[in-house]
Amino acid sequence: MRADAKKNHDHLLAVAGDVVAEQGADASLRDVARRAGVGLGTLYRHFPTREALLEALLRTRFDELAARAATLETPGPPEDALVSWLRDCVACAHEYRGVVALMVAAIEDPASALHASCVAMRAAGTRLLTRAQAAGAARADIDGTDLFALVGALAWLHDQPSLAPRADHLFDVVASAVLTKAPSGR
Questions:
Q1: Backbone angles phi, psi at 157, to 5 degrees
Q2: Burial category of 23 from C-beta neighbours within 10 Å (exposed 0-12, middle 13-18, buried 19 and up)
Q3: For 61-97, b where at least 16 C-beta lie within 10 A, e where not — what string?
């Protein structure tokens, strides 16, 4: 990619991140182009669809979450690792309102641009869950799909004005329901 094209691409992603954080996953692509100071055609040359833009925007975050899970797999209390990763994952899903529906759909659609990133992120969380289960620190009757669903539910709470003030408390309730013993940092 030419240097000027790369600069435009990176600028569009930075602006898109701000717009999606403000407006959610259904943010206006016209707003993204307008704020970036480019025409809509330029936006579409870089990102031919909304999903392509969101995939580029989210792929980095999802890859960071997968990498974070890998660092948490090192020795240490598995319940702490699981709760820490779950909190990071919920924060990511909340950062871009409406992304949970895209994540769930992408998991089910191998043709989706977000599929590979979502599958890798879910697999990373599943490894942390399995490690906690093996140590007797997490319930044995849940799996990675359940954990992924809980991320969506917990992120949704933050988006509800009447529930947002209780979201952190409810995260703790859900985390304690997943675990068989409290994380050591609590």
A1: -55, -40
A2: middle
A3: bbeebbebbeebeeeebbbbbbbbbbbbbbbbbbebb
This prediction has a pTM of 0.82
Main-chain phi, psi angles of 76, to 5 degrees: 150, 165
Mean pLDDT, residues 14-39: 91
| Residue 39 DSSP SS3 | coil
| Type of residue found at 99 | V
Three-state secondary structure string covering 142-169: CCHHHHHHHHHHHHHHHCCCCCHHHHHH
Q: 46-97: per-residue pLDDT in tens? A: 999 888 898 888 888 888 888 899 899 887 899 999 999 999 999 988 888 8
CA distances from 124 to 6, 76, 170, 175 (A): 30, 16, 23, 17
Q: How many CB atoms lie within 10 A of CB 152?
A: 16
d(CA 183, CA 180): 9
The length of the chain is: 186
Query: Three-state DSSP class for 2?
Result: coil
Rg (CA), the chain: 18
User: Contact, 141 vs 89, CB < 8 A?
Assistant: no
Quote the DSSP letter at residue 78. Answer: H
Position 4 scores a pLDDT of: 79
